[in-house]
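Example record

The entry below shows one chain as it appears in the dataset: sequence first, then C-alpha cells.
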Amino acid sequence: MAQLDTREKLAILADAAKYDASCASSGTAKRNSRDGKGLGSTEGMGICHAYAPDGRCISLLKILLTNSCIFDCHYCINRKSSNVRRARFTAEEVVRLTLSFYRRNYIEGLFLSSGIIRSSNYTMEQLVEVARSLREDHDFRGYIHLKTIPDADPELIHQAGLHADRVSINVELPTASGLKRLAPEKSETQIEGAMAGMRTAITDGTDARKRYRSAPRFAPAGQSTQMIVGADAATDRDIVGRAATLYDRFELRRVYYSAFSPIPEASAVLPLQRPPLMREHRLYQSDWLMRFYDYKPDEVRAAADDATGMLPLDIDPKLAWALKFRDNFPVDVNRAPREALLRVPGLGVKAVNAILSARRWRRLRLDDVARLTVSIKKLRPFLVADDWRPVALADRAELKPLVAPRKQQLELFAA
C-alpha cells in the first residue's frame, strides 16, 4: 500500500463509509463538558447530518478504519477482490482526527466502521482502542457509534459497548439464503448470536444502573442493524417480516435499509441495476408504522401486493393498507380511539394527539382536522367529522385515483 497523507486517507475512507446508513445519534445519554472537565458533548448543535427525533443535529465524523478486507462479499465495494484504492488509519490517527475536528466545531461525535484486516479479533481490537482512548485518555464525552464484527471475541464486543453510545451489528441481507449466496464467509448464526449477547449485556447494564449509580453505562443508545435491499430476491414482505423478528428478539433501536448500489467489476450473481430508491423509502415508512403507529407486522405485510410481495411505490404503505381494508373506515374523529385514528391515511402522531386533546372541549369539524394536516384530500374518504360524512366516496369501488398523489413532471432547473 502506497504511503498516503492524512488528507488522502480521509478522502478514501470517508467515501468508503457512505454505504453505512445506520449513523443516527438518537437515544443516547446526555453528556456535556460545561463543568470544565472532559471534552465534547452529545447535546450541542453541529453542522452535519445525523438528526435525533427531537430535532437535534449531531454531526459525526463518519469513516472506516480501513477499506481493506479479507472477506469477499459479492455486494461490497471493499471486498478482497475489488480493484479499489486502499487506505488505512491507525487507531491513534482516528483519535487525533476526532479531537481535531471537534475542537474546530466540525463534529460532535464519531461513527467508526472498518473492513476486516488480519482477523476479526485484530480489527475489533483496533476499533475498541479508538473508543477507549477517546473516553479514557482524553475524557471525550461526545457521541461514539461503533460497527462491531459478529465473529470477534465476545469480550471485545462487550468492551465496545462499555465505550460506545451505540453499537451496530449488521445482518447484511434479509434472508439466510441470500447471505449464504452473496456473503458465504459470514454466518447468520454468528450474527444473531452476537446480537443476542449484546441485548443481554444492554439489559444487564440497565439493571445495574438502576441498582448502583456508580455502575458504568453500557451502550446507552442501544444497538441497531442494517439490511441491503435489492441485492437478492427477498420481497418487501420478507424484509418487513425479518425486521419485525429482529425488533422482537433483540430489542433493536433501529433497523436501517440500504438500497443495493451496483459496484465496479461486480459479480455475475448481482443484479445489473439498483432497485428504485423509493423502495427503500417505502420500507422506512413501513418500519415507522410498526414503531410509532401500532401496526402489527402482519398488517404491514398485508399492504404489499399479493402476487409480488412488494409494497406499492406510488402510494405509501399506510394508504395502501387503508385501501385494501376499507371495512375499517370511515373513522369518527370525535369518538374513535387513538388506535383507530392512527390508521387514517394523512394523520400523523402529532395530529392524532392534537385531535384527542381538542375534542375534549368541543366537537371537531372537517376544517378543524384540515388545520392539522398538509392536505385534507387524502383524509376525506376515511373519516367522519361533525359536518362531514363520506357517503358518496365510501360507496365508490375505486378510491385510489382520488387519494393517490398526483404525478407531475419535475423541472431540472427549477428556481
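Notes for this example: The chain has two domains: 6-223, 325-403. Confidence is low (pLDDT under 50) at residues 43-48.
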